[in-house]
Amino acid sequence: MAVEAPLLDNDSLRIRFVRDRITGGVPASTGLSSGMPRKAKKIVEQGGRRAVPDARQQHRYEALLDAGLAIFAEHGLDAVLQRVADAARDVVGARYAALGVLSKDGASLSQFVTSGMTSAERDRIGALPTGRGLLGLLIRRPKPIRTGDITAHAGRHGFPAHHPPMRSFLGVPIAGPERVYGNLYLTEKMGADDFDAEDERIAVLLARTAAVAVQNARLSEQSQQLVDQVGKLQRERELFFATMNHELRNALTGVFGWAERLVRLQPTGDAVAQAAHEVYECADQTVSLLNNFLDLTRLHAGKVRPVWRDVNVHEAVGRVLENQRPAADVKHLVLKEVYEDGVAMLRTDPVRLAQILTNLLSNAIRHSPDGATVTVEVRAEAVNMWFRVVDQGSGIPEDVLERIFEPFERFDPHSGAGAGLGLPVSRRLAEVLGGRLTAQSALGQGATFALVLPPGPMVA
Questions:
Q1: Rounded-to-integer distance, Cα 114 and Cα 123, Å
Q2: What DSSP state is assigned to residue 375?
Q3: Radius of gyration of the chain (CA)
């Protein structure tokens, strides 16, 4: 009669769980299953309690658990395959183990991993098997094969020269829910002439574990390959954009410089001066477009990092207004500044702040009618600093207010004004600075763009 234990510690519970998976047993509280293996029924019928396994069984169950944990700890496919072969040889008790991975057509082996042989022994054998004999039989008919003498089996093919002698054999398929990934082979049972039914059950359970691990490893490798490909494409795209930006800027430098000189030299109202001004405006807009385009690609790649400085708000806004005044003068616009009490210093990136305000002001100037007023309002709150750019243009329909922050989107595609990059870049730059950019407008009522920035770098 088996020795019974009324209480089981954690190790025994862990061992019992693995044994249940192998034998098909279920806890007594669930009742007997009509499809339960005979061995499991006998265990359950012993007064609803389990017999403590002998030392050999306990060791095998513990080894099986440890093997499963070790297999799933690996991520690379080659490491997973080797770990499965090593674990199977150790847990089942075989002198040699091997694992063959099926090719894409499922008719032969594309990879073959061994355990129990030295590198020199594998080299002496020569080419690895591709799936003949019992190995091929297991491929064509993915069911466990167990024999005490390979040489006497009808499906044998024979061993190549320098192959170590082998007699007992156990092979099981490594199968998942939808496909067979390969086969697990064990030869030369240690301490016995043949592998028994319990060895087969353990090998089958290991093969199921291996199937999941192989699938995970392949998915992991495919994911990494995809990430690498995306990264390569991203780098190539950035290089292309940077190169194009550089070359186009170089080509425009002469045009921009001569146009600016003509604008400064020619008297107002002269036809040549008007032409020079138009050339200057076009060159200026093209340079701005190139800068915004390059910034947008870098923002999408997460490569824009703020350079934090203490910024005098009055001076920063004043410089932006002064730079935009020539464009405003052409349309006889009034540029107005309004500061509320408390506006003084702000810790932010001065270059990015100027870039956002420049985009907002140039946008307001383009969409304002001649003689209108464009106002920049600055207000300091307890936590944030507000910059509001208000124009008296035709306004923006409410249903497209958010779309204008997407690249190349314009609510009036026939206006010919703008390229649709300034606002998307500005919103993303505001987010990089820890703030936000919003718009309010209605048709016929102008537009207001509000930039809200924190008083300093945001600490996660």
A1: 12
A2: E
A3: 38
DSSP β-ladder status, 373-380 and 94-102: unpaired
Clarify whether residues 46 and 90 are in a common domain. Answer: no
- Claim to verify: residue 75 and residue 30 sit in the same structural domain: no
Nearest to 229 by CA among 237, 218, 217, 240: 237
Nearest to 173 by CA among 165, 182, 164: 182
Average pLDDT, consecutive stretches of 10 residues, N- to C-terminus, the chain (460 residues): 41 47 42 41 43 60 67 72 85 89 74 85 70 69 84 63 81 81 89 90 84 77 81 74 66 69 65 70 71 75 87 95 90 94 88 94 92 95 92 89 79 50 90 95 91 80
- From 53, 80, 97, give the residue that closes a domain: 53
First to last CA, the chain: 65
Query: Is residue 104 situated within a structural domain?
Result: yes
Collapsing DSSP to helix, strand or coil, 165 comes out as coil
173 and 74 part of one domain: yes
88 close to 66: Cβ distance less than 8 angstroms: no
Give yes or no: residues 325 and 180 share one domain: no
Q: Which residues pair with 373 in a beta bridge?
A: 334
Q: Which of 430, 391, 428 is nearest to 406 (CA)?
A: 428
How far apart are alpha carbons 61 and 323 in whole angstroms?
Answer: 78
Q: Residue 85 and residue 171: Cα distance in Å, rounded? A: 12
Which of 193, 223, 253 is a domain's end point? 223
> What is the Cα–Cα distance from 305 to 442, expressed in whole angstroms?
35
Closest CA to 336 of 355, 349, 315, 317: 317
CB atoms within 10 A of CB 250: 9
Quote the number of domains for the chain.
Answer: 3
> Considering the entire predicted model, what is its pTM?
0.47
Model pLDDT for residues 225-239, shown as the tens digit of each residue: 888 888 787 777 776
Pairing of strands 373-380, 334-339: parallel
Q: How far apart are CA 33 and CA 26, in angstroms?
A: 8
Q: How many CB atoms lie within 10 A of CB 62?
A: 15
Query: How many CB atoms sit inside 10 A of residue 320's CB?
Result: 23
Annotate 204-217 with b (16+ C-beta within 10 A) or e (fewer): bbbbbbbbbbbbbb
State how far the Cα of 105 lies from the Cα of 97, in Å rounded to an integer.
24
Q: What domain range is 322 assigned to?
A: 304-453
73 and 213: one domain? Answer: yes
Q: Three-class SS of residue 337?
A: strand
- The number of helix segments (H) and strand segments (E) in the chain equals 11, 12
Inside any domain, residue 258: no
390 lies in some domain: yes
Note the residue count of the chain. Answer: 460
